[in-house]
Amino acid sequence: MTNPQQVPHAPAMRLIFEYEGDSVRLVSQQPVDMTISGVDTGAEARPGDFVETRDYGGQRLARVPARGAFRESAEVFPENHAEPITRVDVEARGAFTVVVPAPAEAAEVAVVRVAPPGVEPPPEGAPAPPPAGPARDVDLATFRLER
Q1: Model confidence over 4-49: pLDDT tens digits?
Q2: Phi, psi values for residue 123, rounded to 5°
Q3: CB-CB contact of 94 with 80 (8 Å)
Q4: CA distance 101 to 11
Q5: What whole-number distance in Å separates Cα of residue 136 and Cα of residue 11?
Q6: Does residue 119 have a pLDDT over 70?
Q7: Class in CATH terms, 5-120+128-144
Q8: Which of 20, 9, 16 is nearest to 97 (CA)?
Q9: Which of 74, 66, 62, 55 lies closest to 17, judged by CA?
Q10: Backbone angle region of 61, left / alpha / beta, with phi > 0 → left and psi within -120 to 50 → alpha
Q11: Distance from C-alpha of 40 to C-alpha of 45, rounded to nearest angstrom
Q12: Is the backbone of residue 107 left (phi > 0), alpha (psi -120 to 50) or beta?
């Protein structure tokens, strides 16, 4: 089981990403001196969007959740406050910020989507099949860290 933890006061990097559709670009890297919580150094994958720091060989050093990244819907507030707020689909476009650990051996960062295991619906009347396998990592973009 993974163990999200707090990384003691160590070198860190604030990263700002912009995205449009499936295209992601890193627009800012800023060294920061702060404690980072929610870092996952385990091997078990859970679905979601993450930013990883990797060493020169491409091996993961740490993974931080990118909460709220890649929004594809927006709240719409009605003119009449008695009506409910609704959510509508919108083009995936925006920006997000993440702070990641940046130890000396960190050479790059990767934006990663962990896709849940795919399960095909069974034919009508057939028993449900077992999950198709473990969650899988999909690299959306990789960038060199600037020092």
Answers
A1: 555 455 789 999 999 998 799 999 999 998 888 767 666 566 788 9
A2: -60, 155
A3: no
A4: 6
A5: 29
A6: no
A7: mainly beta
A8: 16
A9: 66
A10: alpha
A11: 10
A12: alpha
Could you give the strand order of the β-sheet that contains 60-65, starting from the edge strand earlier in sequence? Answer: 60-65, 48-54, 108-115, 136-144
Tokens for 129, please give them: 């099949």
- Residue 96 · residue 15 · CB < 8 Å: no
List the domain boundaries for the chain.
Answer: 5-120+128-144
- What Rg, from alpha-carbon coordinates, does the chain have? 19
| 143: enclosing H helix or E strand | strand 136-144
More confident residue, 80 or 68: 80
Question: Above 60 in pLDDT, residue 53?
Answer: yes
